[in-house]
Amino acid sequence: MARNTQVPADHNAPPVTRILAEFVANHPSRGWSDAVDHEAHRTFFNWFGCAVGAAKHDAADAAIRALNVMQPSPQAAVLGRSERLDIAGAALVNGITSHTFDFDDTHLKTIIHPAGPVASAALALAELTGASGRSLIDSLVLGIDVACRVGNAMYPEHYDRGWHITGSTGMLGAAAACSRLLGLNVDQTQMALGIAASTPVGLREQFGTMTKPFHPGAAARAGLLAALMAREGFTASKRALEAPRGFMQVASTKCDWNEITHELGSRFEISFNTYKPFACGIVIHPAIDACAQLKAAGVKADEVERIEIAVHSLVLELTGKKEPKDGLEAKFSVYHGCAAGLLFGEAGEGEFDDHIVNSDAVVNIRRKVVATVDPSIDEAEVRAVAIMKDGSRKTVHVEHAIGSLQRPLTDAQLEAKFSALASPVLGPGAVAALMDAAWKVSAAADVRALVALAVPK
C-alpha cells in the first residue's frame, strides 16, 4: 500500500530554535520594566501557594510513593512536605501539586498555565545549586516567554487537536529556564530546546483526573533533564521546533512564526498572566462570577426555578459534565460552578470537596442550570438569568470575570488566597513569614532559605 509521505508545507520557517536560544542565553538580567518584574513575583507567589496548598492531596501521595521505589537522592524539597527527592522528582511533584487544585496562573491568550512547568523545574535546580533569587526570577520570566510564545504560534489549532498546551509547551519553558540557571551558552541552550522538543506531554482526554496535573509536572521534569543533558554535550536537531518534521509543524496545523519573533525581548508574555480566584477550569469563571453576583443581588437558591446561562461553545466542550462524581470532575463542570457561585458566593478549593460536590443542596441547584451555546458570546463572558419560582427574573452579564486582565486580583487578594491554601498545610503561624519571603525572593542570596520555610517543622 502506498504511503502518504507529504509533510507540512513550510520549509522556509525562520530559525526560531536558534532565535529563542539566543534570547534565553543572552538577554540581560532584569532586562525588563518594573511592572514586568512585579508580575514575575506575582506569578511565583501564586505558584508557590498553589503548590504548598495541594501538598497533602492523594495525587502527591501516590506520585511520591512511585518515585520512592527508585530510591531518589534527597536533593530538593517537595513544597509543603517533609520528603526530599532528586531534583527531577521534586520538579515533577511540585508541578503536580501546583496544578492539582486547578487554581494556578493562566496566560489567557493560550490557556497555558505557565508557572507549573517552569517554576517547578527552576526552583528544584536553584535549590540544588544554591542559586540566587534574582537568577530564579530571571529564569522564570525567560522560560515563560518561550513557552507562551510557542503557544501563541500554535493556538488554538494545537489545542483543538487535543493537546493539553500547558504540558505540550511547558517542557520548552522549563528547558529554557534551567538552561539560563545553568549558564548554558547559545549552542547548549539550542540543544536543550531541541531535546525538550521531543518530549511534549499532555492530552485533553485526561482532564478531570490526576493525570491532568501530571502534565505540568512531567513537562518540568523533561525540561530540567533536557538542560542537564545539553550541558553534558547531548545533541539534538538545531531546527527541532521549526523544521517540517519538527515539533511545531507536527503538532499543529498553525505555525505563526511572527508570534515567536515579534517584539522578542521587549514584550514579555508574563505581563499577560492572570491568577484564578476560583479553583477550576478558567472557562467556568465567568459563570461562577455571574452566579456569585446573583447571590449578592439577593437571589436565594431555594427560590430559584432554574438558572439559564448563555456561553461560548468551548465552555460546554471543556466543562459540560452535568453530574460530576468528585471534586476533580467538578472542576470541569460549569453546572457545579454555577451551583457553587449561587450557594456560596465563591468557588475556592473547599467548594470542590467531594462531599460538597455530592451534597443534596449542590446537586439540586446544579440540576436547575441550563447551559446553551450562543455564537455571539466570547470565551471570556457569560449571560446568566435566574428565573424565580414566582416568575420574576434577574439577569447578569459578565464580560470579563474577576481574575482576568481587565479585573485582576490585587496583591492583597493573592495573599488571602495563598494563606487559605497554605495555612492548613503549614499552620497559620508559618505562613506569614513564608509569604513575606516569597514576595522578596529576588533579593535572596540563596533560594534555599525560602524553600526551608515551606517545609513542615
How would you characterize the overall build of this protein?
- With 457 residues, the protein is an alpha+beta fold.
- 51% of the residues lie in helices and 8% in strands.
- The chain contains 21 helices and eight strands.
- The chain has helices spanning 16-26, 34-53, 58-68, 87-100, 115-129, 133-154, 157-160, 165-182, 186-196, 211-231, 247-251, 258-261, 285-296, 313-319, 327-330, 334-344, 354-357, 360-366, 411-426, 428-439, 448-453, and strands spanning 76-77, 84-85, 105-107, 273-275, 304-311, 369-373, 382-388, 393-398.
Short description:
With 457 residues, this protein is of the alpha+beta class. The chain folds into 2 domains: 16-275, 2-methylcitrate dehydratase PrpD (Orthogonal Bundle); 282-398, 60s Ribosomal Protein L30, Chain: A.
Features:
457 residues, alpha+beta, 2-methylcitrate dehydratase PrpD, 2 domains, four-stranded mixed beta sheet, 21 helices, disordered N terminus
Q: What percentage of residues falls in helices of 4 or more residues?
A: 40-55%
Spatial extent as radius of gyration: 22 Å
Any idea what the CATH superfamily of the largest domain is called? 2-methylcitrate dehydratase PrpD
Question: Outline, from the CA principal axes?
Answer: globular
Output the structural class.
alpha+beta
pLDDT < 50 runs, ≥5 residues: 1-5
* Cα end-to-end separation: 65 Å
Relative strand content: 5-15%
Count of spatially separate domains: 2
CATH class annotation of the largest domain: Mainly Alpha
Work out the number of β strands.
8
> Quick one: biggest sheet?
4 strands, mixed
What's the assembly state of these chains?
A: single chain
- Return the string of H and E elements: HHHEEHEHHHHHHHHEHEHHHHHEEEHHH
Mean pLDDT: 96
Q: Based on the structure given, which CATH architecture of the largest domain is correct? A: Orthogonal Bundle
Tally of individual helices: 21
Largest sheet, spatial ordering of strands = 6-5-7-8
CATH topology of the largest domain: 2-methylcitrate dehydratase PrpD
